[in-house]
Amino acid sequence: MTADHRVPDARGSVLSALDQRSREIFKRIVDSYLETGEPLGSRNLARILPMALSPASVRNVMADLEGLGLIYAPHTSAGRLPTESGLRLFVDAMLEVGDLTSDERRDIESRVAGGGAGRTVDDVLSEAGRMLSGLSRGAGVVLASKSDQRLKHIEFVRLEPGKALVVLVGEDGSVENRLIDLDPGTTPSSLVEATNYLNTHLRGRSLAEARAELNQRQRQVRAELDQLTARLIDAGLASWVEASGGRPDTLIVRGQANLLDDVRAAEDLERIRLLFDDIETQRELVHLLGSAEAGDGVRIFIGSENKLFSLSGSSLVVSPYRDSESRVVGVLGVIGPTRLNYARIVPMVDYTAKLVGRLIGP
C-alpha cells in the first residue's frame, strides 16, 4: 500500500493532546459522519462508547474537541460533525486502511481488463474511470498524456505547504497533472522562479531531457567553481571549511586585505558567489523535475485542500499510474463528498492505478 498518511508536526501535536477517551469519542463522531452524514449527539455517543461515560462527561470531551477545531455543531443543541481539519487528522493519523479481498481484486480486473488483449489504452482508462465511479459512488477521475511529450509550458501550483500540482502542457496541446511532495521550506516564490526559469530555458524538451540538461549545466558550473576556488586556495586567500562526508558548499575567505590589492582575486570571489547561487538554483530545479517524474502514492485532498477541482465540500483521492518503464503517464482516482469511505477507496484507487499501469504497457 502506497497511501501517504504522514502526520505533519502541527497535526501530530494536536493528536498528542488527545487522551484515549478523547480519541475514542472523536473517532466515533467521524465514523458516524462517514457512515450517515448526520451529527452525533452526546446521549447516543454515551451508549456506543466502550467505556462507561455519562452524557455530561461526553459533552465535556466534545467541548474540548471543539476547542481544538476538530468538531463543530451545525445547529444549536445538535450533535457534532468533524471539521475539515478534523477529517484531515483522522485520515492522516487514525484511518485504518486494509487491503482488498481476492474477490474485490478479481472484480476490478474483470471490469478494467474485461475486453482482453484487443482493448486500446483509451478503453482501459475509460473503463477504469467508470469502475471507480460505480464502486465509490463518486466521480471517477482519469488524467492521461504522453510521458515523453515535449514541453510547451510547465507550472508548479502549490496546493498546501508540503504538496504541489505540476501542470505539464505539451507541444501537441495535451495537458498532464502530477502531484508531488515539496521539501520543507519550499516557498511560493521559489516555485514561481522555477516555473519562469524552466519555461525560458527548457521549452521543447521532454522532462528527461530537461533534467539531463540541468545536470550538465550543474557539472559545468561545478567545474568552473573548482577552477576559481583552486586559484584562491593556492594563493592562500581562501580555504574550504572542514566537514565530514565530503566538501561542503562553504568557502572561508582569508586575507581580505590582500584581496583589495588583487583585482583578479576579488573578481574570482564575486564569480564564486554567483556560481554558488547558480548551483543552489539548479539543484532545486533538478529536484522539482525529478519529483514531477516520480510523483507517486495515493494522495487525499479534503474540502478546501481540493484545489484541483475547486469544489467545496468535496474530497479527492488520486494516485499516479506508470508504464512498463516505471514512467508516470497519468493520474486516476475518485472525487466525491468529504464523507467518502476512505478506508475502502484508498486501496481501491491504489490497486487500480497499479493494474492500469500493467495493462497499458510501454
**Largest sheet geometry:** 4 strands, antiparallel
The DSSP helix count reads 12
Fraction of residues in helices? 40-55%
Q: Tell me the series of helices and strands, N- to C-terminal.
A: HHHHEEHHHEEEEHHEEHHEEEH
Q: Could you report the average pLDDT, rounded to the nearest whole number?
A: 75
Cα distance, first to last residue?
A: 23 Å
Strands ordered across the widest β-sheet: 3-11-10-9
Structural class: alpha+beta
Uncertain residue segments: 1-9, 242-249
Calculate Rg over CA atoms. 26 Å
Description:
By secondary structure, the protein is of the alpha+beta class. The chain is 50% helix and 18% strand. The longest helix is centred in the last third of the chain and has 32 residues, at 263-294. The radius of gyration is 26 Å and the shape is flat. The two termini are 23 Å apart. Residues 1-9 and 242-249 have low confidence and may be disordered.
Topology:
Layout: H1 9-16, H2 20-36, H3 42-48, H4 55-67, E1 71-72, E2 81-82, H5 84-94, H6 102-112, H7 121-136, E3 139-144, E4 151-160, E5 163-170, E6 175-181, H8 188-201, H9 207-234, E7 238-240, E8 251-253, H10 256-261, H11 263-294, E9 299-302, E10 314-322, E11 328-337, H12 342-360
Antiparallel strand pairs: 1-2, 3-11, 4-5, 5-6, 7-8, 9-10, 10-11
Task: Summarize this structure as a short list of keywords or feature phrases.
18% strand, disordered N terminus, 362 residues, alpha+beta, four-stranded antiparallel β-sheet
Short description:
The protein has 362 residues and is an alpha+beta fold.
